[in-house]
Write a structure and sequence with these properties.
- This protein is α/β, with parallel strands linked by helices.
- 38% of the residues lie in helices and 19% in strands.
- It contains ten helices and ten strands.
- The strands form two sheets. It has an eight-stranded mixed β-sheet with strand order 5-4-1-6-7-9-8-10, sandwiched between helices. It has a two-stranded antiparallel ribbon with strand order 2-3.
- Strand 6, helix 8 and strand 7 form a beta-alpha-beta unit.
- Helix 1 runs parallel beside helix 5 and helix 8 packs parallel to helix 9.
- Bound molecules: S-adenosylmethionine (SAM).
Length: 280
């Protein structure tokens, strides 16, 4: 089950999609001065060396971050994300890619907190050393779905929660739906961002319908695919569901995704979509 290592995929188009949106969610939440809590249930190693042999194996970042790293014409909605990636690379050459923990580490203020959970022991050790000495950050080698129970509701009463599974087990969408229902019962006002691959459309529509049926309101679906068909064994698109998105986040997401789609589509195909599943 823990064969998945994100280093093979770091900086690919799905990472760009999820991280550019995540940065905008964090910026919107940090508009209020009161502290917030960030929980990353599937945190990975935090920061990725794209020269590492694993990242080089399929060089997925070449169709992702490498396509936009040096672009100067991005809209305001994409700019803070690109600046954060560039800040990891001091010589203007793309070498390192920040995962969700490293990106959020840049956006957290001194009185915000974050908890990072990662089930793979080795990856978790790397994550721990990445954040050693940062008193805002707690790193735990534990199951991300248990973390929802352990960390919610947070004392700040304001939180952004990223659920970014590696989807290497059967029935993962069901597991996410159950965990989300439980988390939402404990903490209904949190902003939850759930990433998932767009593969079998029947499974994903069932998942989305289920979340609406269990009573989640204010449910926004964001989607980006970058090619006409599905590459063999690969991913053509991915989605993020945001529960309780910040005010006008749909507008920001549209501007962001419109530009990303144009920049990342490999054959002029694919599409982006911003759709309320319930309760705009
Ligand atoms: C897609 S990667 C995470 C990437 C990271 N969120 C980022 O954006 O930089 C998924 C991670 O989840 C870990 N993982 C898999 N199942 C898990 C579980 N049940 N609880 C916590 N972590 C898990 C994997 O080892 C992998 O590192």
């Amino acid at each position: 089950m823990l064969a998945y290592r994100h280093l093979f995929h770091a900086g690919n188009f799905a990472d760009v999609f999820k991280h550019a949106l995540l940065v905008q969610l964090a910026i919107a939440i940090a508009r209020k001065e009161t502290p917030f809590f960030y929980l990353d249930t599937h945190a990975g190693i935090g920061r990725y060396d794209l020269q590492h042999a694993w990242a080089q194996k399929n060089s997925e970042y070449r169709d992702g971050i490498a396509r936009i790293f040096s672009r100067t014409d991005c809209p305001e909605a994409v700019r803070p994300y690109l600046e954060a990636v560039r800040a990891e690379n001091t010589d203007a050459q793309l070498h390192f890619y920040p995962g969700s923990p490293a990106l959020m580490g840049r956006l957290l203020r001194s009185n915000d907190r974050m908890a990072l959970t990662e089930l793979n022991r080795k990856d978790c050790e790397q994550l721990q050393s990445e954040f050693a000495g940062d008193r805002r950050v707690q790193v735990r080698n534990m199951d991300g779905y248990q973390a929802l129970k352990a960390f919610l509701p947070p004392k700040e009463r304001r939180a952004l929660i990223l659920v970014d599974s590696s989807f290497d087990r059967a029935n993962e969408l069901r597991r996410i739906a159950d965990a989300l229902a439980m988390a939402h019962d404990r903490f209904a006002t949190g902003v939850y961002a759930i990433w998932y691959p767009l593969m079998g459309s029947r499974d994903t529509s069932e998942f989305e319908r289920h979340l609406v049926n269990i009573g989640l309101r204010k449910l926004l679906k964001l989607e980006l695919s970058v090619r006409s068909g599905s590459p063999q064994g690969g991913l053509s698109g991915s989605a993020m569901l945001v529960v309780n998105p910040p005010y006008e986040f749909d507008k920001t997401a549209s501007a962001l995704l419109h530009w990303l789609w144009k920049a990342l589509s490999v054959d002029g195909g694919g599409r982006y979509r911003v759709k309320w599943l319930s309760g705009e």
